Amino acid sequence: MFRIAAITIFWSVLCGAAFSQPYPSRPVRMVVPFSAGTASDILARQLAAGLTQEIGQPVTVENRPGGAAIIGAETVAKSPPDGYTLLLGSSQSHATNSSLVKKLPYDPIGDFAPIARLTVFPAVLVVHQSIPVKTVAELAAYARQRPGQLNYASTGPGTQAHLQAAMLAATAGIVLTHVPFKDAGQAFASLMRSDVQLMFYPHSALGAVLQSGRVNVLASTGDKRSPRTPDTPTMIEAGYPEVTLAAWNAFYGPAGTPPAIIETLSRATRRVLEDAATKARFAELGIEIAFSSPEELAAFTRAEIERYRRLVALTNLKVE
Fold first, then answer.
1. CA-CA distances (angstroms) from residue 86 to 37, 114, 248?
2. 149-152: long-range contacts at Cβ-Cβ below 8 A with a sequence spacing of 24 or more?
């Protein structure tokens, strides 16, 4: 009996010590609901490297693409709220899906704990060089004469690329044909072959497409010109202010994550984003830093859900 009691006490002490270890005491998983090579994936890997240094534990990136960011978001929503599983959330997972997906398997507000807003990704409108246009106005005029004959690519129904092109079509009074792809690589390849003629996508992920010389950049969806592409006008300057849609990313944990852990992660994220090397790298990639606190992110998420609800209504966009 004495031996059993001693063993029981030993394991109790050992388990108690394990549970009382300061956070983090093991690797942290960052779930990215998009495929490798996308703008969000590029961002995630930059952040993971910085956070690994800040928190003293490895931060690993796990790509869980599919279902318009639903698969990855649902994975995190159903994970233990212990700070060891984070979601690189986005305007897709936490704003547009609320309006576009009838049976969303998670609540973007109730199932998540906001940690920090991260960045903004303005997209650029690129058009295959075979289309004889140099401006958005010329593109609209060209498409108006060819209703339904111009195809645009997206990385799936309901994505930012889908919504941006749908907004352009609705506001310009033109008919464009949507061609969704499973991932960005397939969309880019189709664009370079001219199987599709145009696409909205963040500049940071379009490197090979732009270097190919097969596309022309007509405009940016940011509210101001990017320092990286100062000669590219905004959609506002092009006469389409409604198409100032820029994807954003933010960290969320599962609902119920302890406030102390949220604060630790938020502070570490802020230090990573304020690092001079990070700023320089993001500027090079065309990524705009937009850090905010957990409280600010909570308010921002609610406001974005309402904003995208109005935009989706304008386009009559539906996703089955």
1. 19, 10, 16
2. 149/177, 150/176, 150/177, 150/197, 150/198, 151/176, 151/177, 151/178, 151/179, 151/195, 151/196, 151/197, 151/198, 152/176, 152/177, 152/178, 152/179, 152/196, 152/197, 152/198, 152/199, 152/200
Tens-binned pLDDT, residue by residue, of the chain (320 aa):
444 444 444 444 444 444 457 999 999 999 999 988 888 898 999 999 999 999 999 999 999 998 889 999 999 999 999 999 999 999 999 999 998 888 899 999 999 999 999 999 889 999 999 999 999 999 999 999 999 999 999 988 888 899 999 999 999 999 999 999 988 899 999 999 999 999 999 887 888 898 899 999 999 998 888 877 889 999 999 999 989 888 899 999 999 999 999 999 999 999 999 999 999 888 877 788 999 999 999 999 999 999 989 888 888 877 65
Q: Both 114 and 251 in a single domain?
A: yes
Give the span between the Cα atoms of 234 and 218, in whole angstroms.
9
Per the structure, how many domains does the chain have? 2
Structural domain ending residue among the three candidates 222, 243, 264: 243
The residue type at 150: L
> For residue 50, which of 282, 285, 310 has the smallest C-alpha distance?
282
Claim to verify: residue 166 and residue 259 sit in the same structural domain: no
CA–CA separation, 73 and 88 (whole Å):
8
- Residue 279 corresponds to which tokens in the numbers above? 């700023």
Angle between helices 276-285 and 39-55 (to 10 degrees): 170
Nearest to 107 by CA among 291, 312, 301: 301
**Does one domain contain both 223 and 150?**
yes
- Residue 82 Cα to chain centre, angstroms: 23
Q: Domain containing 190: what range?
A: 122-243
269 & 189 share domain: no
Residue 18 resides in a domain = no
Q: What are phi and psi of 203, to 5 degrees?
A: -55, -35
